[in-house]
Amino acid sequence: MKGNIPLFRETDKKELLRRYGTVLGALAIFTVFSLTAKNFFTSTNLLMLLRQMSMLTIVSLGFTFVMAAGGFDMSIGNSTGLINILFAIIIINTNNFWLALSAALVIGMAIGAINGTLIAYIGLPDFIGTFAVGSIVYGIKMLITRGNPIFFDDSVPKIFPFIGQGYVGPIPFPVILMVIFVAIAIFTLNKTSLGRRIYAIGGNSIASLYAGINVKKYRFLTFLISGLGVALASVIMTSRLGSAQPLAGEEFLLDAISVVFLSTTMFGDGEPTGGGTFVGALIISMLNNGLTMLNVPYYFQYITKGTVVIFAVVLSVALGQKLRVKL
Fold first, then answer.
1. What pTM did the predictor assign?
2. What value does the mean pLDDT take over residues 285-312?
């Protein structure tokens, strides 16, 4: 037999990199920080990392539904802050956690409904409509607080601090909520008619309309889901901080955009997925955590995260992946 037959053909290697390059990138980032950042690879820090990424993951999963349908949501950062404030006000004045939680979820979905109405039914461009809603939300939360934080006393219900700070065995409770939300998102997008129709609309809304799909209805629903994710993350954040900060959550917008774009580079499909969003959130959270442990200035952290996203997307396109995300 002449010559050596390679274990993997060049096309196989390219396909492997195209489908799993983002996962390999996450493993590379984890390895680098484990070797360079003291205490990064410890159970204490890894659990803290998972707790921190739980909020970003939940927000990003809601955003994933919007982008899977070809949409965009610029309001998520400011919406997080407003829900954070209103949740705190309600729980302080009523001392009723369940009422405050219900109100937070309703407010989140109400903001999502406003976005969905403006985009799906009135026809405003996603960027303009959701940016305007985010601006209004920002004004409302600053009007309520005058920019001042709201603090809690010891009279709040015991379940309140548990949501963001509690443990079930060795596992932080927010991590359990994150895993549940990830599982629901993956199942919904991959195994239900809702998910299939959302992907169909994101792929070609005109063809979906001719196929009998109510495009307006399903685009509206994606904004409702996004609002629900923002609300849940806001409740976790308020409990985690032990206070309500008017500017809390503003960083979620840029990070969630990064996460979902990283999600589109997973598995060579070019579309946002629940599993891809989880890996994207892990990458961004590891960068935040590891760079902070290395005492890297915050402005270099933004540069690094932006560079990683650009590299991942450019590499995916260079390897033949067609991104379906529209702006």
1. 0.89
2. 86
